[in-house]
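Case study.
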Amino acid sequence: MLRVLDLACGRGGAMLVSGVSFSVPTGESLILRGPNGVGKTTLLRTLAGLQPLLAGSVDCPTEQSAYASHADGVKSQLSVAENLEFWAQVYGVTGIAAALRSFDLDDLRGRMAGTLSAGQKRRLGLARLAVIGRKVLFLDEPTVSLDDASVRLFNVFLRDVHLSRGGIAVIATHIDLGLDAPTLDLTAFQASADALGGRDAMFI
Amino acid sequence: MIALLTRDLRLATRAGGGFGLGLAFFLIVIVLVPFGVGPDAAVLARIAPGSLWVAALLAALLSLDRIFALDHEDGSLSLLATAPLPLESVVLAKAAAHWLTTGVPLTLAAPALGFLLHLEGAAYAPLFLGLLLGTPSLSLIGTFGAALTVGLRRGGLLMSLLVLPLYVPTLIFGAEAARRGAAGLDVTVPLMLLGAISAAALAALPFASAYALRVNLR
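After joint prediction, the assembly is written out as follows.
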């Protein structure tokens, strides 16, 4: 269960969203929406613990959460399998075969990641999530540059592998993923520009 | 942590990883010195310890800005920061990888290059030991500088300005050890001080670097 209460977060000295409250029960997902710059990425980074909360509280088992950004964190000088094995070792898990299969990367496992197409690289980035097996996922635009078939692969992974095993996912996206999940539009929580009592307050 | 270390070593030795770049730079600088000051053996022998140490410092500096910049660009630094590995261990693994790919080759190559500068016979052992004890501090201080400037455009130049003054104690005691060796004096004190600098850097800087990274990732 992920519970967020009255959360405010911001970036670069400006508060972006405030008063955000939601809860996501085990086995379900939440989709974040809103125009560019409204604070979707900032909210996800705050939930993942990369940025401090400006107000409010997050009730989340942080040792069970994982974050996936716009950038995939893929090393182009390593092969597909080496990339995944590295993350498996960092998270102390073994076995990348299931993840390779889920994202249809079996034929590419020996290829250098630098020679992959943008969509294949994205699939590799998403396969990392399948490898590390964390319960709570914070996903930032997971389906950018994926074709329809790959989006379906991602949906199958999310629904049948992740959520069905009691996982939680918070997903920021602009396109319709075809997931049966509640949506939260962040436009309603936009903070006013001087919500911090002037810009100087952030530097003190 | 071992996983990150082996990944970084693997990346360094693959195409475009920059392994050997620092070593080649070290070689070129040392070869240039006699061209600059002339072939007088007495003068070269006098300036050899200092030249070798300054060149080693600059060679170590060369590969510092890659430590975090590449991981920041492709997003893996954010992912590492949210991984179960503490950021302090990430910093330590990065510094160790830098030392193994730069400090160790420099230490091994320095005696051979000392020959080019007519280094006194008695100075080889203190030079080698001094580099062995001193280069870990170069990597640790450099990692701190890299953590401070990660994410800045042209951060490499700013990092050089931040890091080089912090290298001064290592340089003083390292060159002093080789100079004392050449003069036939006792080298224990400068070598112990070099070890102390590295030990202090190892104890304190991973925490400072991890904090700097956290601030820069916000």
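Observations recorded in class. The two ends of chain B are 23 Å apart (CA to CA). Residues 87-116 of chain B form the longest helix (30 residues). We will return to this complex in the next lecture.
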